[in-house]
């Protein structure tokens, strides 16, 4: 029978164990990516997008919707209203393009999805932007940060970057923030501190089976390549003395950042992502197609004489528009609070109506 002190020691040990377990649990909750309650991706009614894409894939992973006969796939969506065009994205995925936000949103709940066992979702890049913020105190949980952070764009989610250290996962002071809309705010605020928001560049995908890029090993059909010697075996079975990269033939690991091919891929990844952000950040309404302008042009003949001189080719020669643009730039230059595209647009429209 254990003595009293032994019993105490056991109890203390148990309590300590429970405490360690509890804090690990706390951490997994604390640093779990937080997404606004009840949030699901949808297009907003006031969206100025020219098209509203929706991705569709099969709910069963072995069925490749993108490889099916388009005529067969079209039949699935016979009852769906407002499809403007369909596109194949890859073996698994197709994209349906709608011209109306509501038609795209309605499609997400369409019964054909249940009937044919399909999953439909709005691509993140169409309705969200992800920013990175540095030097955020590690004490705060993602949920707390979500409640305390503020910016000119609506915040949808907060995720803290974590790093694996031996068997532990430790929090870093960098977080990523998901914003609603297609513009990234310049700054975000936390407890009266202003932080710069950087564009999030997703990591470059490199396959651990064939060492090539932009796909994962799980779906890779290529033969196994050793990341150390480029031979046809797993790197754990490698007996080679010298390194040889399977992508460029150089004397380094195939996963090394010093590989010129990988470096070029990383740079391309960065640039193409920055380009997407730049294009989508322009929040002004898209220009109508030439046919629509023609129609408008004829209609306006019937309306007022003033509308006649607004068309594609002579917008810049139009004194009214040019003066509105110049006045808007002057207003922005003189103002401290016109920072968002919506504010600039507001100022521009105000000047346009004045002249
Ligand atoms: Zn591969
Ligand atoms: Zn090898
Ligand atoms: Zn290389």
Which characteristics define this entry?
single chain; 355 residues; alpha+beta; Alpha-Beta Plaits; 4 domains; binds zinc ion
SSE ordering: HEEHEEHHEHEHEEEEEHHHH
Q: What bound compounds does this protein have?
A: zinc ion
Classify the helix fraction into a percent range: 25-40%
Q: Label the CATH architecture of the largest domain.
A: 2-Layer Sandwich
- What's the total number of strands? 11
Shape: globular
Percent of residues in β-strands = 15-25%
- Please report the first level of CATH classification, the CATH class of the largest domain: Alpha Beta
| Cα-based radius of gyration, to the nearest Å | 28 Å
Could you outline the blueprint of secondary structure elements for this entry?
Elements: H1 4-30, E1 34-35, E2 52-58, H2 70-76, E3 83-88, E4 93-98, H3 101-107, H4 111-115, E5 118-121, H5 124-127, E6 128-133, H6 142-148, E7 155-165, E8 168-180, E9 187-190, E10 193-196, E11 198-199, H7 260-281, H8 290-302, H9 319-334, H10 341-354
Antiparallel strand pairs: 1-7, 2-4, 2-5, 3-4, 6-8, 6-11, 7-8, 9-10
Helix pairs in contact: 9-10
Region (Disordered): 1-27
Written overview of the protein:
This protein is of the alpha+beta class and 355 residues long. The chain folds into four domains: 52-122, 2-Layer Sandwich (Alpha-Beta Plaits), CATH 3.30.70; 127-199, Alpha-Beta Plaits, CATH 3.30.70; 220-261, no CATH class; 290-354, no CATH class. 34% of the residues lie in helices and 18% in strands. Strand 9 and strand 10 form a beta hairpin. The structure holds zinc ion (3 copies). One zinc ion binds next to loops. Residues 1-27 are annotated as: Disordered.
